[in-house]
## 1
Amino acid sequence: MSDSIASNSSSLCAYMKNYPTTLVAYVKYFGNIEDNVTTAEMSSIDLKGMTLVYKLLSSSQSHSIRIPFDPPLSKYDDAKPRLLSMKAQALGVLGTLKAPQLTTFRFPPKAILTPFIFLAYFYLLAPPPPGTTFLSFPATTVDTFFYPAHAFGNFTGFGFAPRTLATILGVIHGAEGLYTLSLCSRFVKGAMVTATYVGCTLLFGVHIWKDLKKRVEEKRIEATTKFE
């Protein structure tokens, strides 16, 4: 398989000479170089990673470091988005860029699936015992409806009491709510927006805080395009 990026390495390296601060950030963050890096250049790049040559303030000697792409790139068009994403990550952690501040809430469409997933959990893992009646439905009708769930439980030996399952899911969503609050303390401006994010995480779970992190990454990448 040919490496479409390696074959264009020289032109990409020449282009990156226009972004010395970015290259220094790559070296310091992804290379874990704590010393004062004064200059950095890209000497080569391919689908699996890039090689950077840099100098330290304490020495005039040049050093080389290989920074892998995780995961590796698959085609030439992946190079710019990945380099921008890595730039945003490095500059953000190093404090060169201010943390983005979100002032609005966005509800991810995938989150609407959470109530149905909850119902599936309770159906499969916490069905009522055989012979249970529900409202005006006789026990035979209820048993027929929950027959697949009882079969699943008998086959796997896996099941919970409804209260136990509710407690487990509540603890998980509570932990996710605390994590969302920590994200909001850094990246969200406004008590109402923060409360909405935390509240929706408690109700809808993982999709809310994942979308919050995605929005932060989008803002960081937008900011990096204006940097340097």
Note: The mean pLDDT is 92.
## 2
Amino acid sequence: MIQTINIKWINYLVVVLIVFVNLFINKLHLKAEVSEQLIDENLSYISVNGYLEEAINVDFTNGHALNISKYLIQNLWSNYSKEMNEAKQFIATDMLPHDAILWATRNGYRIIWQKPDRFHFIGIVDHSNILSILILNLGGYESLLKIQLLVRAATLRNPNFLTIKTKTHDKVNYEKIIRTLPDADLVIYGYANTIMSNIIQQTPSRELRYVPRFLIKYLKNTENWVGRLNRIRPLYVLRTKTNRTIWIVSNVYGEEAKWLFESIVARRPRKILITGMAGAIGNKFKVGSFITPAFWVNAGSVSALNWIRSLPDIPVLGIYKQVSTPLVETEKWIKEHSLFDLVDVEGGYIMKELKHSGLEAYLAYVISDQIGIKNADLTNWNNEQRRENLTKRLRFFLLSLGYDIRSLGLRSVKIHNIHRDGGY
């Protein structure tokens, strides 16, 4: 009788234990699901499937102003065709690398290769070994458009495309950094590493103690610094012996220029010198020459750029129009835009921010290519020719603004990264 009661009680206890274990496991599983959901909410991602309308409208099967195969190698990698055509899906994101890799692994992907140049491409496969390509360093509208057109041009199809963006963007980062900087007597926008490298080369050895050693190491070796520092988007802050402050700011792409210049204009620098490259439609301007546009097309109307001041020996000529990316420049596009003279991706944003600012602003474009004419571009110049062409003229421009880079009298040099991950 006693043994029977004990066995019954033991069976009862086993059943109860099993029930509690199952409840505990289910509770743990429930907590894991809730945590995963909370993590996703905290990261605040917005996912969008498909292509931008402007990306779909570009026809790569007919004539194009660009040498497409050359452009793809410059912006992807040398043997891009195999991996790009194997991929079943492309995922573009502005997440930081750590967060992007975390997202990929949580969604069941495994990393099989990485190509970190320009945009950062990561090959990922799912449990069925189906290849997707994760693309980092996504910026604003023009950045997304360029990525989508690179994908379409490289594959000559419209593979699945997913965009994952965080709800915050680099505008916040620009504001955070720029509002902490000392007031600027001069802001130089564009070619930051080239200009800083030239300043260091012209700086007397006794003043180099004011320059961080790693900058001297990288910037004096021009073949070395191009790949490294361009990925961190430096903003240099120089202080001279005459107590003047100079900001030298890296160029950014497309819509990011709007965010950046909102922050710069808010700080009211005394002078701004804007440098960059522009394409010339047809053979109106020589490759490598310097131009300040006379007119600007905005919202369908043409305005004189009377808020942009002229520089010595730089012709003020031509009509400027903003373009979303050179990848839209098909032969059909050239015919439709033959009345315009100069194009680039971010200049329109900058001009708009400066229009009512009342700031003393100067603009000098280097002609990068003659759109629609084969092989008429700066890629035919070697790096030394390009740097020499640029630095010689920039020295002259700065001298006309009262700054001689051969005798600035450096007293401090600081570097800030204005991009979260050095995007392109």
Note: The radius of gyration is 27 Å.
## 3
Amino acid sequence: MAQHIDHKLVENNLRYRFEYLSKFINFTTNDIAILNTIGKLTAPILPDIVDQIFQKFLDFDITKRYFLMRHFGYNGTVTVNESELTLQSEQMCFRRTSMTKYLKRILRQKVWNDAFLEYLSYVGKIHTKMAGSHSIDVDFIHINISFSYIEHILLDVVLSNQQIDNETKKSAVLTLNKFFWIQNDFFSMHYTEQSNTNGMKCCLPNRKVGCLGI
């Protein structure tokens, strides 16, 4: 007999939604432990990882433009000339610090309690106007491709490490894939909500310029 899943709870209860996702893709405490292991591996090179991520954002004008605007929670100087924006620009340092905190948290969290799930959800929400800021509305295509790029960087760190056995590497590949699907879902549910609020078709966010980066 098929297990019953309550559609309304999936849509309205974050814990219930996470448990459904976890059962479907078999995300367990073993995966959390693998994430913690990856956290230890990446700790010494985390600044370099973050720089790679943000350099990729600057490599394309369609993503670079998000960093030419004042971001939520940032009160410093804003570089508005695209040709002058670099990784060392004040607003980029702010976003790089935020990304570093995000990566540390997802890779070090040992217990996925309700507070942590709310954090994963909030990270998604603040990239849309659903958090109440009209300056933040990142097109979902950039969110998707960013997760893919971050996952590839982390996988490269794991797979190129000669001290890790093949079984652990296999587990890391599966775990990272599961995690980013869960995080992607926690982002997409806010885009879907925003689209429905705006009377648009599901999963087609508004095309407004906002901020990119965790």
Note: The chain has nine helices and no strands.
## 4
Amino acid sequence: MSSSCSKNLTLLVAVFVAAVVVVFMFPENSRFPSFNNQLQELLRSRFLTNASHSNQSAQSFAKELDKNPVKIEDIYKNETSSRKSEKMYSKLEKVEADLSEARAAIREARTGNQTQDPDYVPNGPMYWDPKVFLRSYLEMEKRLKVYIYEEGEPPVFHFGPCKHTYAIEGIFIADIEISRFRTYDPNEANLFFLPFSITMITQVIYVPESHEWGLMKNTTIDYVDVIAQKHPYWNRSLGADHFMLACHDWGPEISFAVPNLHNNSIRALCNANTSERFNPSRDVSIPEIHLPAGTTHGLLGGPPPSKRPILVFYAGGVHGPIRPILLHHWENKSDPDVQIHRYLPKKVNYYDMMRKSRYCICPSGYEVASPRMVEGLYLGCVPVLIKDNYVIPFSDVLNWETFSVIVPVEEIPNLKKILRGIKLRDYVKLQRAGIQMRRHFEVNSPPKRFDVFHMILHSIWLRRLNFRLHGDGFHD
């Protein structure tokens, strides 16, 4: 893991108000049976097709963009000719004009030829729209500029865990700080990162067994207050162009301490639970990835389908509302096809069992996120998602139904029947598609194009394209 993972950071803060954002890239006819109706409606709307703006000015902006895409060169064409023309456009207007050009390029990709790329060209039903995704990704590489506030000291700020269940928190913080996307000029930034680690707040600030949230929430409030007082950017947009990232289960609750942080800002969360005020049109679902040693060494790859004798496997603790139901129906059955355990027998390796299995169950626990989903993709075991109110990571771009199986909670008693009912050729398609999608969930040091670091950034980038800041800082 990069040495930045061992870096550090301090303080946290607040202000207030609300914002409206627009869904960007959701599937047309998603069939997630365990989702609530509100999320189903969000998933039915399609990226760049039926986006509805919050007022007439936003609608006229979108129509005008379709007819006459803003070109950044038009804004800068008189830059060297006179000082007067240079002052006609604020720095924020130049940032927004650049984003308008990106939106126009993405719209054009829907009807144009597939863009070629030397590293990877998305293709297949695993993507809702491969051409739109690639163009959006390339526009991100071309235009995304993230300003990272330097306030704060480690271990709470500019630092996070790089091993075990919440590893993605520390890895992302370390990678973004040395990333090509970082800018040290806030006036050219189109996104602002709040570099605190919720996991480190729980470890450094929280008093174990105290059940006292006040100190943790005050740390966040104080940090945002410092940012708002020292810099104009938070108050300018009421936090709309700012983002935080948290994999710890307490991330959402701590974010509620700052009204504009959970109402307006982009929250990249592992705990992407719509019943806990996760908003898929503004917030970002990120994958929970368990890295015992801080890397994926030894965690990638597995045998072909013909060498996987076990139909379905699960092992894990009993907590939350779903796992007790699963274990009640299937724990320790004599059926060799169904290996579902609370605890594995001694000398039985968890990862070896996944490699021997065709399907691996990924149920919610206390919270909706689980590292088993990514572990399944890493090891070639098709994930079986049993969750309620969960927004699956990168589902604005990826069609999870092509490389996983989604089972409603009420269908747990029919689990074997459902999996046995999947034809061999369809199972092989699921497994191969999952192997292809693996690259989007891999952790690399340094990051590689299209890997999990870049996919998280791309999801945040899409949310930034969902609104436009005006000269007064308000947005639509």
Note: Residues 6-86 have pLDDT under 50 and may be disordered.
